Amino acid sequence: MIADGSDVDTPVVLPVEAEDFLVWLGAERGRSANTLSAYRRDLLRYQRWNLAEGRDDLRSVTEADLSRYVDVLRAEGRAPASVTRALVPVRSLHRFLVDEGLADKDPATDMEMPRVPKGLPKALTEQQVSRLLEVVVGDDPAARRDRAILEVLYGTGLRISELAGLSLSDLDLDAALLRAYGKGSKERVVPVGSFAIRALVSWLDDGGRGCMVPEHWKRRDDADAVFLNSRGGRLSRQGVWAVVRKHGDRAGLAGVLTPHVLRHSCATHLLDHGADVRAVQELLGHASISTTQIYTLVSTERLQQVYREAHPRARLADR
């Protein structure tokens, strides 16, 4: 039994309108099979509850009904983020019914989603970053490329899509600068540190990128790509992800490290060492200063932890 009193093992079939909604998501919106499977589970859960409430027509659902459904999800002990995720396909389904002329009113229009507490980004320690960068050994082209990728991600705070989109014309290694295109194709100029410069120079040498250049470029864009895959094409976002995961696993950071964690770490360590928050905002390409200020909370937490662990009077106070 579940919190609403219905039997979770009772077979439930989605209404035709819900099946049409899932087909539309896949065919028109390009949702992945995994997303569609998750949506189906949530909608089956929602349909089971509706049937237990004596409703077999989605068009009869009211805003008050949806509020009670939220209470049911909360009663199951779900976290706010879990409740919000379960409501996304429900809200989308009711919107779909209105847009397709299958319902006159969307009961979720004025409904407030549960507030999800904003979690702090998890940054690596400086020791963990050093360990990660040290596991890339060798002088072969792949090692040179991977070392440059990790150094640039951590040294500049680039998003994974920004790094994958880098072209040779975006680099000015003499001036230690690169040009990145962020969200909305917004352009910004980013300084590059000496370690990242050294790694890029090594990668762009004949013994690095030159060894991955194919006889014939398949796409015009590949010829100008900074980072290439083993087939001589522009390294994709997935390819960059694979590089980070591979070396993260070797450094003992499996399940911890992602390209975005390196971005978080760059910002946090800059603030740890006294960087101005507005300078970090510009470096990372945040549209709002409030986004960057999240990292100041991380730095404050670290400062407090160091204080509690290092100051004798702080340790006494904790006893």
Summarize this structure as a short list of keywords or feature phrases.
three-stranded antiparallel sheet, mainly alpha, elongated, 3 strands, DNA polymerase, domain 1, single chain, 54% helix, hpI Integrase, Chain A, 13 helices, 319 residues
What do these coordinates show?
This protein is mainly α and 319 residues long. The protein has 2 domains: 16-99, DNA polymerase, domain 1, CATH 1.10.150; 126-310, Orthogonal Bundle (hpI Integrase, Chain A). Helices cover 54% and strands 4% of the residues. The protein has 13 helices and 3 strands; from the N terminus they run αααααααβββαααααα. The protein has helices spanning 16-27, 33-52, 63-75, 80-99, 126-134, 141-156, 160-164, 194-204, 237-250, 259-272, 277-284, 289-310, 312-318; strands at 171-172, 177-181, 187-191. It has a 3-stranded antiparallel sheet with strand order 1-2-3. A hairpin with a 5-residue loop joins β2 (177-181) and β3. α1 runs antiparallel to α2 (33-52) and α11 crosses α12. The model has no long low-confidence stretch (mean pLDDT 85).
